[in-house]
């Protein structure tokens, strides 16, 4: 039995206990939520006295309208199952502030079993809630700070899966998976890292843990869309109080762009190193001593004979020499100063001094800001190509000359053959018609004309044949021991008594050698033509002076006249086939004579020169070696 004093005492203790509670104790009717009992401490919690609750005020009235449906639903649900409830919600304090409360309660048996009551406790949890909110806000701030950082931050377990403990938003950019998929849905690092790289990462992390240092490892991650991206991952293991590894903390950056650039660079480097072309890279200083070489490839070493060590630090001037075109260097400088690429070729020299024709292609290389930082030069030895081109050009030139010659030959022959053929035809017709009636002498005159015309034509053909033989390289020298005076005397006599019968031809052989190793045929070709020109281009009655002498182991012959001379403009092309000077007037000719002289002299290993002045006269001079080698 409990004594009254004991009961009073117990009530007193209960009251003081409930008063000091940061909340209120209640007993209520679940149907109406009217309080059967409310502890006095409800005053602090709600601002209303416990009496107010016995006067029909219900706690439910204080619930924040937004939270009310949830509170009712949860309470009803728990009570219908006769289970205790525990609900957090906000109430309006009488002073107008909002308080967070935690209400706990459960049904208790009542004297009337049909109407059980609820005993419960309402605790003020405003402070805890506010602390939680502050924590959430601070976490939010932290997350937003981290998400604004480049890259991503993570915390994961140190085991086979690397399960995620924390992941910043940046993971989405790298993998296409959200932070939540890692943090909340159990996606682990292992699932997004490229499998081939896994062993390498494991080893790097293991080694760092062993050494007690941070790890840094670059690897590939598989993006949700299937693409691969490169990351660099720097992290460190954190140990728990017991010394075991609690987790790994790290930061990660997307380095795909850098890796791609590196890959490109590697490719370019391989291309530059492996190309058969010579590549050299220089700085940009154009003033003396010139741009320093900073890189050369094996192609350069092969082309120039300089090793990379020898070339680096030098300037491209090491390739220049006597025949390097100075104009080209000026142009090169102008182009590069203007930031323009340069193309050109010039003679350069290898380390051993051998020259080669170098084709240069130089481009300025610029940095991000567009400033020129280097010149990249690609060089190619085009010596063989140029020689080949020259040979082709010469061959073409020759072919063109031959074709010109043919054209000129046709026009010359049609002209030069027409006159003697006309003579032949005329005389033959006259002879046919009147021959029988003519005196013998007249017949002979016409027959001689025909013969002379035939001779002219045959001489012309001879000339053409000599040129043809010479062009075909068949004008060979057949030297024999002969007396030059005798040979030239015979030619002089022949001309003097033939076409030169109106001229005086003198021959000076005072210093002529007694013998010479020479080809009489070639001497005849040369001297006959020179003499007949002297006759043709000087007035009858004038004197032509021929002189033969020996000097400097050579046989010299000059033929001098006081004729019309050769205008200066024509002198240069005088020995070309068919070329005739502008002052020849009516004097007939083919323009082949001097070409034959020149070829004959050349075949003899000698040379020809002349002096001439228009209106004064000409002197032609040939020099033949006395004991010539076969010049052909
Ligand atoms: P051509 O049949 O016209 O004489 P050549 O080849 O012998 O041909 O000479 C070429 C040209 O050189 C002549 O047409 C002439 O203009 C000039 N020439 C050659 N010899 C003399 C000379 N002794 N005096 C003046 N001109 C000459």
Task: Explain this structure.
- With 632 residues, the protein is α+β, with helices and mostly antiparallel strands.
- It has 5 domains: 4-131, Beta-Lactamase, CATH 3.30.450; 149-254, PAS domain (Beta-Lactamase, 2-Layer Sandwich); 270-381, 2-Layer Sandwich (Beta-Lactamase), CATH 3.30.450.20; 388-465, Helix Hairpins; 476-631, Histidine kinase-like ATPase, C-terminal domain (Heat Shock Protein 90, 2-Layer Sandwich), CATH 3.30.565.10.
- The protein contains 19 helices and 22 strands.
- The strands form 5 sheets. It has a 5-stranded antiparallel beta sheet. Strands 7-6-10-9-8 form a 5-stranded antiparallel beta sheet, with helices on both faces. Strands 12-11-15-14-13 form a 5-stranded antiparallel beta sheet, with helices on both faces.
- Strand 14 and strand 15 form a beta hairpin.
- The relative contact order is 0.04.
- The model has no long low-confidence stretch (mean pLDDT 89).
- It binds adenosine-5'-diphosphate.
- Adenosine-5'-diphosphate binds at residues 529, 533-534, 537, 561, 563-566, 574, 580-581, 584, 589-595, 618.
Shape: rod-shaped
Q: What class would the helix/strand composition place it in?
A: alpha+beta
Q: What top-tier CATH class of the largest domain fits best? A: Alpha Beta
Helix content: 40-55%
Number of distinct helices: 19
Here the CATH topology of the largest domain equals Heat Shock Protein 90
Q: What is the assigned CATH homologous superfamily of the largest domain? A: Histidine kinase-like ATPase, C-terminal domain
Regarding quaternary structure, what we see is single chain
Question: What does the largest sheet look like?
Answer: 5 strands, antiparallel
Number of domains: 5
Strand percentage: 25-35%
Tell me the Rg in angstroms.
60 Å
Task: Give me the count of strands.
Answer: 22
- Stretches where pLDDT is under 50 for at least 5 consecutive residues are none
CATH architecture of the largest domain: 2-Layer Sandwich
Give the overall pLDDT as a whole number. 89
Strand order of the largest sheet: 2-1-5-4-3
Which kinds of small molecule does this entry bind, naming each only once?
adenosine-5'-diphosphate
Distance between the termini: 158 Å
């Amino acid at each position: 039995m409990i004594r009254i004093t004991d009961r009073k005492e117990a009530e007193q203790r209960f009251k003081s206990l409930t008063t000091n509670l940061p909340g209120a104790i209640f007993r209520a009717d679940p149907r109406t939520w009217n309080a059967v009992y409310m502890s006095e401490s409800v005053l602090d919690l709600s601002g209303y006295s416990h009496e107010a609750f016995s006067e029909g005020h219900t706690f439910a009235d204080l619930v924040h309208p937004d939270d009310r449906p949830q509170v009712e639903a949860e309470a009803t649900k728990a009570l219908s199952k006769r289970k205790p409830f525990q609900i957090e919600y906000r109430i309006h304090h009488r002073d107008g502030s909002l308080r967070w409360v935690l209400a706990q309660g459960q049904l208790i048996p009542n004297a009337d079993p049909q109407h059980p009551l609820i005993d419960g406790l309402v605790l003020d949890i405003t402070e805890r809630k506010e602390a939680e909110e502050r924590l959430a806000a601070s976490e939010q701030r932290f997350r937003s700070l981290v998400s604004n950082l480049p890259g991503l931050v993570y915390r994961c377990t140190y085991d086979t899966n690397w399960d995620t403990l924390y992941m910043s938003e940046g993971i989405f950019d790298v993998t296409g998976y959200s932070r939540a998929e890692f943090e909340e849905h159990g996606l682990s690092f292992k699932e997004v890292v490229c499998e081939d790289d896994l062993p390498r990462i494991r080893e790097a992390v293991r080694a760092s843990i062993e050494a007690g240092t941070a790890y840094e490892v670059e690897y590939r991650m598989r993006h949700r869309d299937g693409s691969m991206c490169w990351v660099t991952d720097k992290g460190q293991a954190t140990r728990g109080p017991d010394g075991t590894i609690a987790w790994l903390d790290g930061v990660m950056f997307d380095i795909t762009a850098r890796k791609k650039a590196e890959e490109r660079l590697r490719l370019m480097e391989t291309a530059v190193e492996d190309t058969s072309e010579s590549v050299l890279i220089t700085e940009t200083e154009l003033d003396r001593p010139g741009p320093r070489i900073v890189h050369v490839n094996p192609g350069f070493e092969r082309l120039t004979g300089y090793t990379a060590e020898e070339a680096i630090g030098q300037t491209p001037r090491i390739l220049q020499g006597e025949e390097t075109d100075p104009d080209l260097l000026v142009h090169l400088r102008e182009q590069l100063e203007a930031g323009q690429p340069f193309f050109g070729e010039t003679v350069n020299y290898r380390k051993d001094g051998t020259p080669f024709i170098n084709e240069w292609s130089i481009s300025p290389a610029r940095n991000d800001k567009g400033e020129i930082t280097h010149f990249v030069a690609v060089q190619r030895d085009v010596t063989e190509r140029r020689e080949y081109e020259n040979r082709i050009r010469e061959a073409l030139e020759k072919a063109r000359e031959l074709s010109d010659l043919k054209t000129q030959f046709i026009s010359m022959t049609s002209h030069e053959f027409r006159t003697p053929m006309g003579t032949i035809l005329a005389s033959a017709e006259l002879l046919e018609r009147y021959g029988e009636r003519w005196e013998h002498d007249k017949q002979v005159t016409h027959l001689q004309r025909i013969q002379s015309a035939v001779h002219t034509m045959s001489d012309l053909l001879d000339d053409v044949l000599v040129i043809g033989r010479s062009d075909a390289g068949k004008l060979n020298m057949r030297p024999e021991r002969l007396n030059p005076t005798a040979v030239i005397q015979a030619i002089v006599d022949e001309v003097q008594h033939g076409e030169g019968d109106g001229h005086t031809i003198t021959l000076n052989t005072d210093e002529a050698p007694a013998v010479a190793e020479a080809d009489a045929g070639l001497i005849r070709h040369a001297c006959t033509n020179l003499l007949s020109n002297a006759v043709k281009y000087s007035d009858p009655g004038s004197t032509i002076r021929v002189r033969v002498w020996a000097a400097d182991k050579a046989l010299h012959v000059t033929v001098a006249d006081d004729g019309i001379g050769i205008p200066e403009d024509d002198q240069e092309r005088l020995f070309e086939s068919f070329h005739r000077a502008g002052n020849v007037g009516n004097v007939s000719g083919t323009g082949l004579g001097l070409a034959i002289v020149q070829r004959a002299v050349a075949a003899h290993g000698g040379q020809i020169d002349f002096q001439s002045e228009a209106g004064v006269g000409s002197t032609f001079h040939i020099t033949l070696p006395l004991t010539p080698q076969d010049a052909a």
